[in-house]
Amino acid sequence: MNAPLASSAADPVVIVGGGFTGLSAAYELAKAGRRVVVLEKQSMVGGLAMGFTVGEFTLERFYHHWFTNDVHVMDLIKEVGLADQVVFRPTRTGMYYANTIFRLSTPLDLLRFKALSMPNRIRLGLLALRARRIKDWRAIEGMTARDWLIKLAGPEVYRVVWEPLLSGKFGPYADKVGAVWFWKKLALRGGSRASDGREVLAYYKGGFSELAEAIKRRLEEMGVEIRLNAGATGLEVADGQATAVWTEAGRVPASDVLLTQALPLIADLFEGNLDSAYVASLRRIDYLANICLVLELDRSLSETYWLNVNDPTFPFVGVIEHTNFEPPESYGGRHIVYLSKYLPETDELYRMGDEEVLEFAMPHLQRMFPNFRREWVRKHHVWRARFSQQISEPNYSKLIPAEQTPLANVLITTLAQIYPEDRGTNYAIREGRRVGRVLAARFGRAAPRPAIEADAA
User: Fold this and answer.
1) Residues of 252-281 as b/e, b for ≥16 C-beta within 10 angstroms?
2) Contact 247, 254 (CB under 8 A)
3) Is residue 167 within 8 Å of 146, Cβ to Cβ?
4) What is the rounded CA–CA span in Å between residue 334 and residue 389?
5) The domain spanning residue 429 has which CATH number?
6) What is the domain range of residue 229?
7) In CATH, what number is assigned to the domain containing residue 357?
8) What is the four-CA torsion angle of 272, 273, 279, 280, rounded to 10 degrees?
9) In angstroms, how far is the first alpha carbon of the chain from the final one?
10) What is the block-wise mean pLDDT of the chain (457 residues), using blocks of 10 residues?
11) One domain for residues 171 and 119
């Protein structure tokens, strides 16, 4: 490798990652007249919202929706002229407990939830209201979700409703999840309801992948260069700044760099360039992987869109029948079901082959839906994401790395940093646009010196 060259204001801003954070940052930079290159290691943009084909239709690999209070994504969609592609629909939610599916879409459903005593049904119903009254999340940041939920709703509600969900989603990390993470989930879902109490969600016609592709097309019209199959392999550093990003295809000179991948992947890029303690701080936050089995069926499993599974013997934390939200006609009459599981990457299920995953899931589905038969499955897909869910521990705010790195012209903006919110396209877009404006403001002036000097490459 040749000696590093000094970065120049004439060089582009290089964004590593073509998810919604990277695309939104590129949008703000392009509006400000900056040259931008987006590097994406996959063959398409969208991150976890990347799509695949179902017949002649497109569907995201991992289930997605928006809440009605997701204003940041709606603002961007309006700006790029795509507001007519968003649909809002009421949904049916439920819970699988003690071999029974309980409907939990409305307050009346909750009052009929016989798995809890009547006083505890009321406690469960009041929980979201009590969560929304909390204005300063710092007051509960030192608590675990377990302790906070028991304090607010009592041990029976926790045992029946929340403990199985926490264990199903976070596995070995269940008792380490912070109260703030759960509080934000309750407050967000509680604010996305119709006047009759039903949850109302939003979706993009053609899928979230199509939205990402539409934004990509708009960016290219604005002069942004988007390179696919171009994952970053390293940074070139000189005098406390990044002068270029290296990919398998070669060197990309940079005036500024924005890194949007998961923190452990960012740490890999910094190895050998920065102090080892700083690199270790990026690896301090733990992540769970996700495996998602997507079924194309010739008929529906149930009338429920989102079925939480409160049965520790069932291997998936949720059964999401997407076509009870976006109709089967959008997929040529196929009924689409997602089976999702968060788990360590070392878990046996994560390492199974695609056919093994299907065969593993079959008896569990037949136990939940006794009429279900293997012949209903027209096709199946298995998707895996290594860095899917960060673990938001108590006092998580003290673990989050700063946006400004020790390299003067390198920023990091990831879904692990949007706390107290959790990951999602709405907040990815919010943070992408914000940091894009920060980088745009640097045009024509030197970036500030970092507090910690970087080692020379």
Assistant:
1) bbbbbbbbbbbbbbbbbbbeebbeeebbeb
2) no
3) no
4) 29
5) 3.50.50.60
6) 13-49+208-284+393-441
7) 3.90.660.20
8) 30
9) 11
10) 56 96 98 97 93 89 91 95 94 88 83 91 87 88 96 93 90 93 78 64 93 96 97 95 95 97 96 93 95 97 93 92 95 96 95 97 96 96 95 95 96 94 91 96 54 32
11) yes
Angstrom distance (rounded) from CA 36 to CA 368: 50
Task: Determine the pLDDT at residue 8.
Answer: 61
- Say yes or no: 223 and 317 in one domain: no
300 & 361 share domain:
yes
291 shares a domain with 378: yes
> Which of 172, 144, 146 shows the shortest CA–CA distance to 157?
146
What pLDDT score does 194 carry? 57
Gyration radius from the chain CA atoms = 23
Specify the amino acid at residue 8.
S
Domain match, 376 and 411 both: no
Nearest to 183 by CA among 388, 396, 434: 396
DSSP state of 199: B
Q: How many CB atoms lie under 10 A from the CB of residue 356?
A: 13
> Does some domain include residue 266?
yes
User: DSSP H helical segments within 154-286, as ranges?
Assistant: 155-157, 163-170, 179-190, 208-221, 263-270, 276-283
Query: How high is the pLDDT of residue 451?
Result: 38
Same domain, 291 and 385: yes
pLDDT value at residue 196: 62
Asked whether residue 276 falls in the same domain as residue 406, the answer is yes
Are 246 and 219 found together in one domain?
A: yes
Instruction: State the number of CA atoms in the 13 A half-sphere of 119 facing the CB.
Output: 4
